Amino acid sequence: MTLPTDPAENLAALIRCASVTPAEGGALTALETMLKPLGFLVDRPVFSEDGTPDIENLYARRSGNGPHLMFAGHTDVVPVGDEAAWTHPPFGAEIANGEMYGRGAVDMKGGIACFIAAVARHVENNGGPKGSVSLLITGDEEGPAINGTVKLLEWAASRGEKWDASIVGEPTNPHALGDMIKIGRRGSMSGAITVNGRQGHVAYPQLADNPVRGLMSLVDALLHPVFDKGTRDFQPTNLEVTSIDVGNPATNVIAAKATATFNIRFNDTWTAETVQAEIHNRLDQAARRKKYRQGKKTPVDYDLVWRDRPSHVFLTRDDRLIETLRGSIKSAVGKEPTLSTSGGTSDARFIKDYCPVVEFGLIGKTMHMVDERVAIADLETLTQIYQRFIEDWFGQG
Ligand SMILES: [Zn+2]
């Protein structure tokens, strides 16, 4: 039997499955076909929740006597956009000038294809790692992410699964393979402020209470002063006001309500709770300021609603995991990767509650774009990095 040792072949099989969230599209079946000959036990739990589509996920484990490494990722992809604009069809896996084209090539079917090839080579050459390897693959990362990694982790943990370390195969490198390992992420929270004023005629402001004046004070307090100057491992906390809405088409009317929404990305100076407390405090103080509301006796009447659940900030401090991966990268590409906490959130924020987690995959340049593609040479190099990592990480276990 031929084992799935060629990452380009693995990736082509995955790209040919049109697994745009929430569709499974055959991608998990393709994975199962690759994993079974390697000795993995494969489960494909489906999770549901009212108001969201059912999602099929995959958990595969190859058991051994030793530590347990989990590779995490997703087979769902974002929509193709303008299909006519693609140089090669988005689900065709065509190769041109040494690059394979297709939606998911780097985000992140490519990462999965390489990891499987790395395990397959290890099985072929050394009979497989002496510990356990599992793949935790969701079909709901690019969508609402409700029936995906969170539930899959809970499902696996409730069956007694425990992991010692995890690699998420998202595309972490900005320009070249080996640029960057992600070892943490900033936290993220969004909120909406509504200021309740009193409608009236612009010529008689004393009879009205213009909510725009109040909102200006509040927004000013969100933007100034800065929250912090950054920490050793993180860039400065940043708040962006994402929208300001009054919806008032008349120029002679003072509106009754004004709203603003914002998102804050915060570093390890803060927790979700202390950020919330700080923002409440800033708004309460600003509500009493008279700068834009001379003559008003009452403070700004406002409501603040936090949207969704916060994403918590985290930093992985597992030296063995980080140093082993750093060494594998150095031996494959000859350079030192930057350890970074930049960028948006990823499923690593859920995995960190179960075991130390780092992220390392392909080059992110073309992700979510028309003509998403990956160099065949990069697939081979990433496979070698993962293979070396597996050898070294289990070797030390
Ligand atoms: Zn992704």
Task: Give the topology, please.
Layout: H1 7-15, H2 27-35, E1 41-43, E2 46-49, E3 52-56, E4 58-62, E5 68-74, E6 95-96, E7 99-101, H3 109-126, E8 132-138, H4 149-158, E9 165-168, E10 180-182, E11 184-185, E12 187-196, E13 200-201, H5 211-223, E14 238-245, E15 253-254, E16 257-266, H6 272-287, E17 302-311, E18 314-315, H7 319-333, E19 338-340, H8 348-351, E20 357-359, E21 373-375, H9 376-396
Parallel strand pairs: 5-8, 5-9, 9-20, 10-19
Antiparallel strand pairs: 1-4, 2-3, 4-8, 6-7, 7-21, 11-18, 12-16, 12-17, 13-15, 14-16
Helix pairs in contact: 1-2, 1-3, 3-9, 5-6, 7-9
Structure explained in plain terms:
By secondary structure, the protein is α+β, with helices and mostly antiparallel strands. Helix content is about 30%, strand content about 25%. It contains 9 helices and 21 strands. The strands form 7 sheets. A 6-stranded mixed sheet has the order 1-4-8-5-9-20, with helices on both faces. A hairpin with a 2-residue loop joins strand 2 and strand 3. Helix 7 packs across helix 9. The chain is elongated, with a radius of gyration of 25 Å. The two termini are about 30 Å apart. The model has no long low-confidence stretch (mean pLDDT about 95). Bound molecules: zinc ion (ZN). The site of zinc ion has 5 residues, from loops. One of its GO terms (molecular function) is succinyl-diaminopimelate desuccinylase activity. Keywords: Amino-acid biosynthesis, Cobalt, Diaminopimelate biosynthesis, Hydrolase, Lysine biosynthesis, Metal-binding, Zinc. Belongs to the peptidase M20A family. DapE subfamily. Pathway: Amino-acid biosynthesis; L-lysine biosynthesis via DAP pathway; LL-2,6-diaminopimelate from (S)-tetrahydrodipicolinate (succinylase route): step 3/3. InterPro entries: ArgE/DapE_CS (IPR001261), Bact_exopeptidase_dim_dom (IPR036264), DapE_proteobac (IPR005941), Peptidase_M20 (IPR002933), Peptidase_M20_dimer (IPR011650), Peptidase_M20A (IPR050072).
